[in-house]
Predict the structure of SUMO-activating enzyme subunit.
Amino acid sequence: MASQNQLASIKGAKVLMVGAGGIGCELLKTLALSGFQDIHIIDMDTIEVSNLNRQFLFRKSHVGQSKAKVARDAVLRFRPHISITPYHANVKDPDFNVDFFKQFNVVLNGLDNLDARRHVNRLSLAAEVPLVESGTTGFLGQVTVHVKGRTECYECQPKPAPKTYPVCTITSTPSKFVHCIVWAKDLLFTKLFGDKNQENDLNVRSTDATSSSEHVEDVFERRKDEDIEQYGRRIYDHVFGYNIEEALSNEETWKNRNRPKPIYSRDFLHDEIAQQNGNVDNAASDPSSVSAMASLGMKNPQDIWCLKENSRIFMEAFKLFFMKREKEIGNLTFDKDDQLAVEFVTAAANIRASSFGIPLHSLFEAKGIAGNIVHAVATTNAIIAGLIVIEAIKVLQNDTNNYRMTYCLEHPTRKMLLMPVEPFEANKSCYVCSESPLTLEINTHRAKLRDFVEKIVKAKLGMYFPLIMHGAALLYEVGDDLDEAMVANYAANLEKVLSELPSPFTSGTTVTVEDLKQELTCNINIKHREEFDEEKEPDGMLLSGWTQASSVEKDDNKSNGNGGSTSNASQAVPVEAEDNVEMDVPSGKKRRLSEISGQDLLSFTDETKNHGKLEVVDDDDDLVMLDGDPGLNKRKRMQ
Ligand SMILES: Nc1ncnc2c1ncn2[C@@H]1O[C@H](COP(=O)(O)OP(=O)(O)OP(=O)(O)O)[C@@H](O)[C@H]1O
Ligand SMILES: [Zn+2]
């Protein structure tokens, strides 16, 4: 029950919510039921069928309508006298500027991507409005409080970069199913159905191609007069048979690894493919409903298919692409909602997994891995929404000593499912809230201003309306009110290498980058460097001072590594980032707001312990105690 004081601050508060999805629906309901009376809500999306299982303010009849507006209407039905103002818009729209933010007492985020979170962080800082930030991934969740001058900002700690895998792990030495999935979707699928010009390690010449360098056959090209079945079998034998034989010939690679076994279509595909033709012809005419499973009479996506079944799905999906979706071939990119693409990728990944002795997976599981899907848990969203409201009330009451960031865990640790932690002070080297300069190592004779703008200013610093200055020279800016001469001048600058700009970048140069909309200015010290490691520094430049944590998996290829691959492809293969929860919990490096007695340092859950250590506040009021044997919990005290 809220106290009188709390009720008074709740009633007088004007609150901005950003995001009306899984967390947002719960949050709006909880805010309304807690007594909040003036809530503004921004969401750019419309309702989709897949939202209905957890975004309970929405019904089937709302599909296609604005989330923000429908959420407002749904809550007004049980709280008709409060004011809810919806905006069906992107929070990055210039209308939502610093002045807009200034009208609120607190901002509450229920977003699902880093970009929007960073943007809201900057506007909240500029407007000096406290921000309560949140995220969930499956059973995991977190709520953090960011108050300028009191705590760290959302960007004080670098966020984990999208997970990437070394190319040689994907092309030559997979050890996990996810490696097979990345191979199947980013290399094989793309090579067959997407951009044919993509260079990748699959393109090892086949044994039957001539060895003269005059005529090198692209094995992925369909030969003249080759029927689809022959073509499919040739690809199958090439990637699962011949390529593996080739890799095996490099003995060094397999000294400390299990040798994969080549797989050929003749062992799993007899003449039955021919019998399937009738079914293929009967397949639905709507391209999006074409399915290899349907045409082979396989129904359950949770079944784990044997090698023979995977081989049949592989061939059937391959044929269906050419027979039913030929127009799309050459332009396809993998989409987790494309049934046929998921079937093909599941089968291909399973055949490869089988070759490497990796356990096979069902289509349902493979789809989750390929689409980087962590199934949402409605209860986690509800818990997190409740915690957001608790922190919002403390913020409104200026109850600074009791601010907590709280982690929701999958398994109880020390009988706790919710881990409250005191917020940390701002990181002095944070370029967002502490105006600390960054350092950029870059080849100033090779990199163009365009590379700097795209790879650093936009991708790393998250600025959308950048302005770049060196000394008194304005080198680049974005805006609606630029005259033609300026636009032409900036366009010309973009194509220049840094050392040849009107005001050249050289070692020792300090460049100022600003985003006027975010009211953010950042100085970057330039350091010329000649060479970069293609694998570790694929951007060809390195930003430090405030750096992204590298999450390239440690490659265990200690010897020559490339396992018989012939191409020189060397960049890491990216997979999408899990952007909801950053479980890189505060590391011991950060300083806390105040000293806490009875503190306990421990590592917890497998997901989090690799990223850092968590400082836990032993404050029973804030903890959820669970029954259970404490001995069962993974627990480790730090010295
Ligand atoms: N830049 C933005 N401006 C406004 N709203 C945003 C922005 N980015 C994300 N959102 C909103 O944040 C919400 C996040 O909710 P949630 O994580 O449940 O995702 P979802 O898209 O509803 O569901 P799912 O991705 O799981 O299908 C979405 O409704 C989305 O529209
Ligand atoms: Zn900061």
